[in-house]
Amino acid sequence: MDNGIHNRLHSDKAQASLVNGVKEEPVSTQRTHSPDNKGADNGAAVVRDYSNPGSNLHTLQNTEMEELPDELQHITADSLPLSLLLSRLAQFSHAKLQELILNLASKPLPESFSNGNSGVNGAVKGSANAGGHVPEDTSPESLDKKTMVLNFIQDLHSRWVKALVITEWAKNADEVGKLIDLRTHLADKLELYNKTFWELVRVKQELAFAKVPSPDLKTALEVLTSGSVHWMPDFGYLLKPPLTTQEKLHWLNEIEVTLHMRLQLHEYERIPQPWRQYKVENGRVTFTVPGEFEVDLTISDEDFDSQFWFLDYRPIFTPAPAEVSEHARAFIEAQVNTVLQTEGLPGCYKYLHELTLTAKIGEFYRQAVELTRTGLWVQTLKVERLDRAMSIQYWAQSPLSRGTPSWILLGVHSGKAPEGLHDPGTPSHIMLQWFREGKEAKDISIPFDVDTISTEKVLTTVISRHVEYLLGSMYNALLGKPRFTQRQGTIALRIADQPDTSSALTMQLLGKHDATLGVGTWMGNFYFHEQTPTGRDWAQRFNSLRNPAHEGANLLEQIRWSYTARRLRMLPKPAIWVVLPQAPVPSDEVKSVVYSPSSSTREPFHAIWVRNTRWRPQWFAMMSLSLGGDGWWLVEVSAEGRGFSGPRITTFTQLPMTPSDPRFPENSWFPELTKHTTSIMAHIDDLRGLHQQRTRYGFGKSRDSRDLTTYVRSPDMLASQSAPDDISPSPWATQFIPLVYKGPAPILGHEFADLIADAGSLQKQPARQRVLVEAKVAVTNRARFVLLERKLDRDVFYDHELGQFTLRFRPDAGSGAVPLLRARMLALNRLVGIVDGLARAGKRVMPERVTLREIVFTYGDGTHGSLPPDQLSAPSQEKQQTWRLRLNLAKDQGVDVILEEGNPHLRVKDYLQAFANSPKLRTIPGWLFLTLPLFRALERLESSWDSVLAKEQGACYTFHKSMDWVTIRFALSGAKGRRMHLDIKPRDREGNLVWHVYRPMTDANATNENDEFNKVLKERVWSVDGQGFKGLMNGALASWDGGIENLIALIGETIQSLAGTPPPSLAAAQPHQLSQALSAAQQQQQQPAEHHQPVAPPGGGPQPARFASQQAYQQQQQQTPCLPQASMHPQGQPQVQQQQQQQRTGIAKNNTPVVVID
């Protein structure tokens, strides 16, 4: 739009310039300098040459601004750029055009369009086809729209024409500006001329009063000499006689009576309320307004309608002048008499009341001005008088007043209601308005005494309220925070009636250290009572706050953060504790920890990280300081987690201690941290392990010591000891076992030496922190544990009175105690099983020492079962030796079985060793005394065959295929097949354990009735019943406690009877055949033995154990070194006899049982 206008204006280059739309010829002016113009203005004379107007105008246009006179000022005020005017006009035109378009669109269509008739369109089309003119649409709607468009165009046209004129005038902006400057200069000179003229008139009028008249010397001489003037007339007036005292009292009494009558009868309703109490005496009525003034009035006529007259006025507020000056009294008298004549007593009261209030305001102002000149208030107050009011700004030099000053306003309140109506019961009074930090404090009432005026007291009262506001706002903001509601810190506010050093806000920083914040009375600056460099720095920060009442609470909290961090670094602490310079995790991770107790509280916080060098690298301790509550935290940090790179917090827990807790002073922080963190780390590791193993558990705190406790089930701790073929024993422990975490474990002697060495070494890592964990395992039946000693191990104790085990562990703080508890429970379970076995064995087994490391008991020195002594054989009637067995449970490789030299069970020591390291360890005591008669019988049998072997007539061998399976091999000289073996196995017969001796089917001649061994055994053994045994025709059954010895002795005698006799098929036996038979038997030592399932002992006795595979057992025995065989025999036995004994028993040098199979 602008471009179009400019193109249209400047299309004709030859067009003359337009001024107000009229062509104008240029007029030039010439500026000449003439010596005759020296007395003219500083500028040069202008001579216009109207003969050549063009040259004159050209010369005027080239005149520069600096050539103008100095007194001409260039006017630039209220000037706007032309571009702004045109842009605003273009915006206005565009907005009006949019408004016009919307208004036209909102107008209704003509009826022809609304009825569906083509109307004008049809006519237009027809006319166009006919070549005629288009008819005009004259409908009211169209006319209305056209009118709107025309009005719009006319309005904009007038505006843009004005803009065009202004634009053309702008081409000569310099000339127009000079014209404006000249016009302004001439107007100023004319105004100065007028002022000068009227000033001269005023001076002339005042000079008339300054004239001194000529002195009348003639009259003055006459007066001075004679005292009179002859030309002054004498009227001859007579003076009234003076009143006597009685007359004066009479008239005073009359006046008083009249005053009483008039005030009681005529003026009573019009007496103002404050003047209801008055005093009449000495011919006057005295009206008193307490704290303001007293006024004396009287009357001069008995007429009740006559006016009162003023006598005296006395202000009675303090301080006030004792007497009013004559000038002031005359002024008051004139004003009061005038008011009494027109308005009566109400008007008099109002006038004097307002006068007194004004005087009081003046007194307040006088005292304020005095305060600004003397004392401590110098340069701290700004006083301003505002007619009948005054303002006093206090703390003028305080940083608090830089942006938002504080002041008080003392003025007269009219007493009118908010609606503007006057309330007679509420007269005007002095009011005090307090503007605190730029805003009026409307809800606060400040008491001040208007009877005894003291500006300083008013100021101190207001300042005290301001101090209360500043400190109280901080106090209320802090008091409502969780840190103080939960009593984690102390805060106190003291406000004095008069501001002094006792008004202060005291907040606990740490322990017994407090921060006491005060506000200066006169300067209004914050200061701390502790005059330290740090206190001064924080005071400067307080004074720089824009709104201390709202921001001061957070700054006080920051002071506490700074002090606590500095104090923590300065505290004496062990060398293993280190305060970290920065957090090991991002701030978002720290927020998730601090805000975890209450997500609704999001107070700013400060975190201080510490670490114990004896911890694992991922563990840290953090102290969080916040108005939401302080706390110590134990945090576990991982390198990466939850899909984010960088360190992340995986585990955290709040410690049961706070930095401000009086129970934990500063010097006990690190010991308490060590106590709680070690317990919690072990507790967390145990819970994590139990959760990963899907083991049920519980946790809480112990009732007596409030220590962390983990509850586990005893079956879960004993689950790994069950075997598929084991008979589950009755539970000996209660269901739940509490694991109590007692804090850091005491440092032992060797650990202390290592710790000292670690502290002196820069490369060696310090020893890990250990925690003391105590487990209480209660037993279900105390009678089962009477054989136990009180101290079972260094850290295992049994209390017979309470019936419970006390287990103590010292694991690493980050390792947990559950694995140690499980191992110790398994050891206890093994011990309980052995103790049960010892108890079931009765008097045949006597325990000597029962601990977790070692079990020692003796067996064998007892009775022989149910057989009477007269039925025992000679060997059984001999007093049997008692044998001692020691089980070493402290070895890492397993249980070690140690037997005495000469013990019959030495032949099966390897089996005993394997048996002791199986879940059937508890059956060893029962098995030993049950098998002792059998093993004694086997030794006697072997001893009885020594003479036969020496003669090379035969041999007898015993082989132990398992703990309860013995094979006896007999070989006689003669034919190759003159051999036989017998098996001895336990059997259950009517609930009693018996030994079954028979010839197994693996023997080729087991069913051959013509076999010489079958014949002799059937005849002399299998078919007879002896002492403690019974024949079965193909075998025999013998009792375990004596019958087996008689039976084996009878079998040995029976087979020995065949030695030295020829076999049935040979006449005689050759000696070398016996040697061949012995060699053949020894070659079969490595052949596997048959598997056999033993029979459980009757009556719930101990069940003998066995290996799952004889071949596996033989392989183990080949790799396991054993005791030398010499320890199995008495000292002094010849070496030849020892070798023969080894051959008979089938035991090689490695103590491996040998199995000989035909």
UniProtKB/TrEMBL annotation:
Keywords: Activator, Nucleus, Transcription, Transcription regulation. The keyword Ribosomal protein does not apply. Residues 80-301 form the Mediator complex subunit MED14 N-terminal domain. GO terms for biological process: regulation of transcription by RNA polymerase II. GO terms for molecular function: transcription coregulator activity. GO terms for cellular component: core mediator complex; mediator complex. Residues 1144-1158 have a biased composition (Polar residues). Belongs to the Mediator complex subunit 14 family. Component of the Mediator complex, a coactivator involved in the regulated transcription of nearly all RNA polymerase II-dependent genes. Mediator functions as a bridge to convey information from gene-specific regulatory proteins to the basal RNA polymerase II transcription machinery. Mediator is recruited to promoters by direct interactions with regulatory proteins and serves as a scaffold for the assembly of a functional preinitiation complex with RNA polymerase II and the general transcription factors. Component of the Mediator complex. This is Mediator of RNA polymerase II transcription subunit 14. It comes from Parathielavia appendiculata.
